[in-house]
Amino acid sequence: MLRHYGLHSVGLLAAVPPATLQRLLGGRTGRTAADHARGIDPRPVVPTALPASATVRCSFDQHTLDGAAVRAALLDLVVRLGARLRRRPQAARALTLTLKFAGGTTWEKTRRLAEPSAHDDDLRTLAYQLMDAAGLQRGRLTGIALRGEDLIDADRVAQQISLDDTRALAAGGKDRGPGPRQVRAGRHRAGSRLPPRLLTSTVTPGR
C-alpha cells in the first residue's frame, strides 16, 4: 500500500507527517509506522538468553587407537570450548565427554568443575580426568565431543571471586596478591584481545 504512494524506503516514510500516515494506515498503525521510521520504539529491550550449554566436536578420518592423537584432539576441543565460552562470555559448571566408537557405540560421562570456569587450565584438567575414567583399552574411536554444561554469566564468576577474597580478608587473612584464578582471568582477558589467527597459533594452556 505504501509503495502505491511512492513510500518505498524508511527514509521516505520518516519524512511523511505522522498525521498523513494515520490517514493512510489508520490511527494506531499510522502512528506506530511513523515512530518506527524515526527510530522511536517504547518497548523494553529484552536480552536474548544465552544457551545453557556449548558443544565442540571432532571426528577422526580413520578409526584411531593412538592415545597421543586422542589426547591432542581432546586438548584442541578444550581450547575451542574455552574460547567459545569466553567470547559469550560464560563459564561452565560441568563438562560432559562423549566418545564415539566404531560400530556405533558411545560412552558419555559428566563431572562438575570445582568452581564455574572458562579457563583452559580448569577445562583441560577435568577433560583429562573424564578421558581417564573412560578406561580406553583397544577401543577404536571415531569421534569425540566435549560439552560445557550448566553455563552461567561470567560476571557472576568474577563477583564470586571478589566475594571470596573479601571474606578471606575479613576473617583475618592476608592479602597475598592475585591468586591462580585472577592470574588465569588476566591471561585470558589479554589473549581475547589477540587476533583469532594468533590465538590458535601462539596461545597455549599454561602449566
Task: Give an overview in words.
With 207 residues, this protein is an alpha+beta fold. The protein is 47% helix and 22% strand. It is built from 8 helices and 5 strands. It has helices at 10-15, 18-25, 27-37, 67-87, 120-134, 154-170, 180-191, 196-202; strands at 54-64, 90-101, 106-117, 141-149, 152-153. Strands 1, 2, 3, 4 and 5 form a 5-stranded antiparallel sheet that branches. The longest helix has 21 residues, at 67-87.
Short structural description:
The chain is of the alpha+beta class and 207 residues long.
Indicate the mean pLDDT. Answer: 78
Put simply, the count of helices is 8
Secondary-structure element series: HHHEHEEHEEHHH
Low-confidence stretches: 161-169, 190-207
* Approximate strand percentage: 15-25%
Helix content: 40-55%
Structural class: alpha+beta
Gyration radius, rounded: 26 Å
- Sketch the major β-sheet: 5 strands, antiparallel
CA-based shape: elongated
Q: How far is the N terminus from the C terminus?
A: 66 Å
Number of strands: 5
Helix-strand blueprint:
Blueprint lengths: L9 H6 L2 H8 L1 H11 L16 E11 L2 H21 L2 E12 L4 E12 L2 H15 L6 E9 L2 E2 H17 L9 H12 L4 H7 L5
Antiparallel strand pairs: 1-4, 2-3, 2-4, 2-5
Helix pairs in contact: 2-3, 4-5
List the defining traits of the structure above.
alpha+beta, about 20% strand
